[in-house]
Fold:
Amino acid sequence: MSGNITLTMIKPDAVRKNQIGPILKMMNEAGFRIRGMKYTRLSKEQAEAFYAVHRGKPFYESLVEFMTSGPIVAAMLEKEDAVTAFRELIGATNPANAAPGTIRALFAESVQNNAVHGSDSDENAVIESDFFFSKVERF
Ligand code: UDP
Ligand code: MG
Structure:
């Protein structure tokens, strides 16, 4: 059974370029409802924990540095089959491979500075939503 929530971050590269508005507009127009949202900046410890699955990979330390380089927008989104639908909306990790019209094709700078995060499974959508949002921060 597929779940109805996913967790996104608008990453520091996109925030720096004032792309929060256009990116949220694309999410809303694709039918995602915002259940929770916050503007925040990850500590090194938080970024390391969020990306713990990638610990040891060659890009891990640079990724943590990038993700702590400025504020982000974290949002919990709801739609039927949210994880799959959202990954379609954002496109491939590397913008060179992202389908035309996807968020990463439009806004990403590189495979690392790729504008947005999207959960990769229903299980991780729950874990990542719990990472950012308490019960009273969900609507
Ligand atoms: N990343 C990177 N180099 C790579 C692969 C990934 O810098 O070769 C970064 C990129 O910001 C990516 C994040 O690490 O979004 C997490 O990687 P993952 O493979 O989970 O990609 P995603 O699920 O974000 O598409
Ligand atoms: Mg991933």
